[in-house]
Design a protein that fits this description.
Largest interface: A-B, 48 and 25 residues
Largest sheet of chain B: 2 strands, antiparallel
Strand order of the largest sheet of chain A: 1-2-6-7-10-15-16-17
Number of helices of chain B: 2
Number of strands of chain A: 18
Order of helices and strands of chain A: EEHHEHHHEEHEEEEEEEEEEHHEEE
Number of strands of chain B: 2
Helix content of chain B: 25-40%
Structural class of chain B: alpha+beta
Shape of chain B: elongated
Shape of chain A: globular
Strand content of chain A: 25-35%
Number of helices of chain A: 8
Oligomer: heterodimer
Chain lengths: 321, 81
């Protein structure tokens, strides 16, 4: 039997689960403390965070922590690997689309009136200078970055590693982005339901998984209205606007949550042509795309094996079992 | 047997007839009773913050709790956040 601890952090619900044995409660508490501390360092909404200090230093060299350096190096690698589809430097465009304060504030008071105005060309993440030896970076003048999902993935992975040192098997989930270590003691696999992006109360796919990471990007979760138009938080770096593809959500299963986070976002932003093309370059990934026309596309090898979106729930043994 | 039954019934009837009756509230007591005041309506639940501008302790969350247990482990849900 597993001990489960759930709490709110990173503006979402966090679930920690670990096999119940001596010391497990201390392990859960330590993992929670780590998550809450890391959130304070990498949130763009906290003016005292390390990320806010970095964004404020654009144009100058800034000393950073080893952890932030590790995340930024991963960002640089994925920015190149995805040909720029993954670009943390979209923050000015994201703010201009209306996401310039937390979703809690947007839902309470609406978007800021200063958003939605023409913007000068923004910097690309590739313009960042990273000096690993001296542990410092220089953002291009005017550049602002949002670590969003990749920081969350990094935090969850670290928390799972911490938890696993105390109690295996274990799992950490933050808003549905999750890492599994080991196999459940009494079950053959971890069970993960993929929810219908148009009806979160309904599961449309059930996955059975072994040790792995799962991330989902969706255009239906963080939404708001700006000047009469429905907007979402996934900015297409090619246009500077919320992505307009036919995907409603993309779930990626990978060995690393950071990888799953990046590819879930890149596939959703890239659209149909990316599903088979870009994902085929990473045969270690499995993906599940829920399209706006109700189809589910999976890959890389299982396309055409799934029924249509309606009627719903069946179980699917992912290759990672 | 029949006489005993009739006799027992009569004794019981006589005892009940002379037993104390429930008392009724007096007119004075009734006049002293006052209807309870109507409670003031509850303040609306403000999710946006309080009068001082401080953030509310309530937050909107995209809760994705485990939907149940399977083999002793939670069943997870993923849908983006």
């Amino acid at each position: 039997m597993m001990r489960v601890l759930d709490f709110a952090a990173m503006n979402t619900a966090v679930i920690l689960a670990a096999e119940a044995r001596t010391g497990v409660d201390d392990a859960l508490a330590a993992a929670r403390s780590f998550i809450e501390g890391a959130e304070r360092r990498f949130s763009r909404f906290l003016p005292e965070s390390e990320l806010s200090a970095l964004n404020a230093s654009a144009g100058d060299w800034q000393d950073i922590s080893k952890d932030l350096l590790e995340i930024l190096l991963a960002c640089a690698a994925f920015h190149g690997e995805t040909d720029g589809l993954f670009d943390p430097a979209i923050l000015p465009a994201l703010k201009n689309a209306g996401y310039d304060k937390s979703m809690v504030e947007i839902r309470a008071t609406g978007v800021s009136p200063r958003s939605g105005v023409p913007q000068p060309p923004r910097s690309r993440f590739g313009e960042i200078k990273i000096d690993s030896t001296r542990q410092r970076v220089r953002l291009a003048p005017g550049m602002q970055i949002d670590l969003g999902g990749i920081a969350k993935g990094w935090i969850v992975e670290r928390a799972a590693r911490l938890l696993a040192e105390w109690s295996m098997p274990c799992a950490v989930s933050a808003g549905g982005d999750m890492v599994f270590r080991g196999y459940p003691t009494d079950g053959r696999a971890w069970r993960v339901n993929i929810e219908d992006p148009l009806d979160p109360e309904r599961a449309i796919l059930g996955l059975r998984l072994g040790p792995c990471a799962v991330a989902t990007s969706s255009v239906t979760k963080r939404t708001w209205v700006q000047a009469g138009h429905l907007r979402h938080h996934l900015i297409d770096p090619r246009t500077g606007e919320p992505a307009a593809g036919n995907g409603l959500s993309v779930t990626v299963v990978a060995d690393s949550l950071v990888t799953a986070e990046v590819y879930a976002k890149a596939l959703l932003i890239g659209g149909q042509q990316e599903y088979s093309g870009r994902a085929s370059q990473r045969p270690d990934l499995s993906y599940y795309v829920v399209c706006s026309d109700g189809r589910i596309t999976t890959g890389p090898a299982e396309i055409e094996q799934l029924p249509s979106l309606d009627p719903i729930h069946f179980e699917y043994a992912a290759p990672h079992v | 047997m029949a006489l005993t039954s009739v006799f027992s019934f009569l004794i019981g009837w006589a005892m009940l007839a002379h037993a104390p009756k429930p008392t009724q509230a007096s007119a004075a007591a009734q006049s002293a009773a006052r209807p309870l005041p109507t409670l003031a309506p509850l303040a609306p639940l403000d999710l946006s913050g309080n009068a001082n501008g401080a953030a509310s302790s309530f937050t909107h969350l995209d809760i994705q709790q485990p939907q149940g247990m399977f083999g002793g482990a939670p069943i997870f849900t993923t849908g983006g956040s």
